[in-house]
Design brief:
heterodimer, A: alpha/beta, eight-stranded mixed beta sheet, seven-stranded mixed beta sheet, 20 helices, B: alpha/beta, two-stranded antiparallel sheet, 10 strands, about 35% helix, about 20% strand, globular, binds thiamine diphosphate, binds iron/sulfur cluster
Chain lengths: ~600, ~270
């Protein structure tokens, strides 16, 4: 079986069906048994409105990062597609409309920007679409051409087209399949001497358990599986799809989505719901998270659970709303007044979005504290095909620590136990009435400002969070070895690029390893320290300016941690990390 | 001399003698002697007693301020949140456990300044929360700065030349935002508070109890007991609280008529 690692882009104007075409490629290739990672990237140099670009990386082995070079470009609008030419692989294939309905001057045409080695395939997208029943289906014609040349089994596309358009009726399904077939047949005939048949030869097995989903979808699904009762939120990119997903599916499970007036009320209501004993959640991005911080510390102080998704975007303030970055780590770990230790976790791929959100409810309940799940634009919006995630009973189980059945003499809500966890009564339980407060308080919950109480209770709250390590995922090592020339630590959506870069460096003969950290706070310092100790250089690549994880962990290493900080607001290319690893070794040698 | 402890002890024995059960906590209110809040407290306590609500099925939610301390003085479940966030927390509690009776308690600063953005929204969602707004027209806990309801020209340490901002009218706001039950009450009339609360708690939507009260420590000139007692009076005879037009009319022409201003017909 030959190895497939193929990146295809579709580019067009809004209305060309670009996103739909990209989605069909993802679905068809997933159905074909390939590993798929797709992301709709909007180039920074957008001028004018409505350019859409979808990118799909397709592999016969696991795909963990976005591709850097495009092997095929499907151009639904040549003027827009010109900007994609620089990303093309030397021998890329370009599919374009050979009879565009609108005139494009020579110097504006896509073809004029392409280098000599690129192979072009012109099909009359529009004409074939019209002949098949609707001009709008030219994106399907293009897919047909693409499938024929690269050797993708056409029945895969026919199946996903049927699935996608079924609801719109037989006529629409028919037009779309006809259009696809028209493009397919045209290409077979016209380009018979230039067919690549790459995919035909790969022979990958179809895996019926695989599903395609985005990070945000995985978060929404997990929350529902967790038995979410209430979602409170305020729209903000890139967290909004979580609210929209839940608005559609939560009512079916008896839950409710309330669009609140702002982020402050959203977290306030989440705390209210958890205080009353029901699972609730909110999701936001940096600016909204900043507004929530006071109430998050209220959750810390009053020991009330909460689950908060911070879908990071780039920059301070409104920043770059549709761009990706990992720059809220400090806000998540330290944001807000006082010594307010809370739990912060960060999934690195779509599957982890699911399992970690599920787990976050249990962590919040058991440790009676807000749990912040850090994702980012890239992780939220990319799609991956993964094994259908399933919530075990164990992962769904309630972890509330209730007091004994029989109310004792006097219930101490904030009892100073050795674990730091105090049994939490909820309204409706007779005999345990207490007042939760954000003021410093005694074990019984009465406000108290004495030095002794503040010292003792601060210590208790921190002990509790430290103890949460026992339930927090340990760092995972990849390409483990006793001694490493470079050990790379990665977190969040960047970890996929770390893994790929380390794999490639290793192939080049370097002694490198990777450590994945998903428990951001508290973190497993012993394991991290041991990994650092055996690494000649420790490198932490991050999509932020200062190296926020590096700042947090540097004290564990005997010498300064090496950093790779990009603020391009786009996913880190694996090659940038690989280059840095190999540079370090050259300098070090 | 009447110390707060003595006043409280007298109230305690009076309520105990009445044979009603007793929703006060052992923690004595920390309010200044003579503060209007004692009267409101008594009004709430009597309402809970009369309705015979089980204490473990009541949650008292508050923000920050002298008024915000209220949950500590009640034997119900309590949630003392941060400044201004009383109503969102109350929303979360009520939606999570609709069977609970929820009292939201807060001062005029807490509810109309920092938390002012939440009032319209809980009203339009008509969440079944009973919001008792302790309106002393001053910031008590931070020691006497002007509040959004301070009358024009109020002189405080933070407004030595007198305030220049128009005061807000919480009763009018509650009506405008569409609260389904609106009462205007006086801390010097605990019985009136109790009666209104009993009706309001039974209203299956958002109820606002706007209570005029006196801060004896920081307001020596405006909302003093002497002035308030002079100004307040009952709603006109034959007043129909189910007619929203009548309600607006009344509130626009008279700031001091007390009672149930509006009750939505169900
Ligand atoms: C975010 C925030 N800002 C400011 C404060 C300080 N603060 C505490 S109470 C208060 C005003 C209270 O006034 P009011 O709500 O009218 O209640 P009262 O004390 O008069 O009962 C202020 C500004 C705070 N606790 N939190
Ligand atoms: S400062 Fe004013 S409002 Fe606060 S307790 Fe004293 S009298 Fe009451």
């Amino acid at each position: 079986m030959s190895e497939v690692d193929f990146t295809v882009e579709v580019c067009g104007m809004a209305g060309d069906g670009t996103i739909a075409a990209g989605g069909l490629i993802n679905e068809a290739m997933s159905l074909g048994g390939f590993s798929v990672l797709g992301f709709d990237s909007y180039p920074a140099e957008i001028r004018g409105f409505g350019r859409c670009v979808t990118k799909s990386r397709i592999g016969s082995t696991d795909i963990v990062a976005l591709g850097e070079q495009t092997h095929a470009l499907i151009s639904l609008n040549d003027e827009q597609s010109r900007s994609r030419a620089v990303f093309l692989d030397d021998h890329a294939l370009v599919f374009f409309d050979s009879n565009p309905p609108s005139y494009v001057s020579e110097e504006k045409s896509l073809l004029s920007t392409l280098s000599n080695n690129v192979e072009v395939f012109g099909l009359p997208f529009g004409d074939l679409a019209v002949a098949s029943g609707a001009a709008r289906s030219k994106n399907l014609v293009a897919l047909g051409g693409f499938a024929a040349v690269t050797g993708i089994d056409p029945s895969l596309f026919r199946q996903v087209i049927l699935k996608k358009f079924k609801a719109k009726g037989d006529r629409i399904v028919d037009i779309n399949i006809k259009s696809f077939d028209a493009g397919y047949d045209y290409a077979l005939e016209k380009f018979h001497d230039r067919l690549k048949n790459w995919f035909a030869k790969s022979g990958t097995q179809y895996d019926s358990d695989k599903v395609m989903m985005s990070g945000n979808q995985a978060i929404g699904m997990a929350a529902i599986e967790a038995g979410l009762k209430l979602y409170f939120g305020y729209p903000i990119t890139p967290a909004t799809p979580i609210m929209e997903y839940l608005a559609k599916w939560l009512p079916e499970k008896g839950g409710r989505v309330v669009q609140m007036e702002d982020e402050i009320s959203s977290i306030g209501a989440v705390l209210g719901s958890f205080y009353a004993g029901e699972r609730a959640m909110t999701a936001t991005s940096g600016p909204g998270f900043a507004l929530m911080t006071e109430l998050i510390t209220h959750g810390v102080m009053a020991e009330i659970p909460a689950v908060i998704i911070d879908a990071q975007r780039a920059g301070p303030a409104t920043g770059l709303p549709t761009k990706t970055e990992q720059s809220d780590l400090h806000a998540a770990v330290f944001g807000g007044p006082g010594d307010s230790a809370r739990i912060v976790i960060a999934p690195t791929n779509v599957e982890e979005c699911y399992y970690m959100v599920l787990k976050s409810f249990q962590l919040a309940e058991k440790y009676q504290t807000p749990v912040i799940v850090l994702t980012d634009f890239f992780l939220d919006n990319r799609v991956e095909n993964l094994h259908t995630p399933r919530a075990s009973d164990e992962l769904r189980a309630c972890w509330n620590v209730f007091p004994d059945e029989s109310p004792g003499n006097r219930y101490l809500r904030y009892e100073d136990t050795s674990s730091g966890i105090s049994p939490r009564a909820i309204p409706g339980m007779q005999g345990y009435n207490y007042t939760a407060t954000g003021l410093e308080h005694t074990e019984s919950g009465s406000p108290d400002y004495s030095s002794e109480i503040h010292t003792k209770m601060t210590e208790k709250r921190h002990r509790k969070i430290r103890n949460a390590l026992e339930d927090l995922q340990q760092p995972t090592e990849f390409f483990s070895s006793d001694q490493l020339d470079v050990g790379v630590i990665g977190w969040g959506s960047t970890f996929g690029s770390v893994l790929e870069a380390v794999a490639k460096s290793k192939k080049n003969g370097f002694r490198v390893g990777a450590l994945k950290i998903t428990s951001i706070f508290p973190y497993h310092s012993d394991i991290i320290k041991a990994f650092m100790a055996k690494s000649g250089f420790v490198l932490i690549p991050e999509l932020n300016y200062e190296g926020q994880l590096a700042n947090l962990l540097e004290r564990l290493n005997s010498k300064p941690v090496e950093r790779l900080n990009l603020v391009t607001a786009t996913p880190i290319p694996p090659s940038a990390i690989q280059k840095r690893i190999e540079e370090l070794l050259e300098v070090g040698a | 001399m009447k110390t707060p402890a003595k006043i409280l002890a007298a109230q305690v024995s009076r309520i105990e003698e009445s044979g009603r059960f007793y929703p006060r906590s052992e923690a004595l209110p920390t309010w200044c002697p003579g503060c209007g809040y004692f009267g409101i407290h008594q009004g709430i306590v009597d309402c809970i007693s009369s309705l015979g609500l089980p204490l473990h099925e009541i949650v008292t939610v508050s923000g920050i301020g002298c008024a915000g301390r209220y949950p500590f003085f009640s034997k119900t479940y309590g949630l003392h949140t941060v400044h201004g966030r009383t109503l969102p927390a109350a929303t979360g509690i009520k939606l999570a456990k609709p069977g609970l009776t929820v009292f939201a308690i807060g001062g005029d600063g807490d509810g109309l300044a920092i938390g002012g953005g939440h009032l319209p929204h809980i009203a339009r969602r008509n969440i079944d929360v009973n919001y008792v707004l302790f309106d002393n027209s001053i910031y008590g806990l931070t020691k006497g700065q002007p509040s959004p309801t301070s009358p024009l020209g109020s002189k405080t340490k933070a407004s030595p030349y007198g305030t220049v901002d128009q005061p807000l009218n919480a009763t009018l706001m509650a009506l405008t935002y569409g609260a389904s039950f609106v009462a205007r009450l006086f801390a010097g009339d605990p019985k009136g508070i109790t009666d209104a609360l009993i009706q309001g708690v039974q209203n299956p939507g958002f109820s606002v109890f706007h209570v005029y009260t006196s801060c004896v420590t920081f307001d020596k000139t405006f909302k003093t007991w002497t002035n308030l007692k002079k100004w307040v009076h009952p709603l006109p005879a034959g007043y129909d609280p189910t007619d929203i037009h009548v309600a607006f009319d009344q509130v626009l022409k008279d700031d001091f008529s007390m009672g149930i201003i509006y009750r939505r017909k169900n």
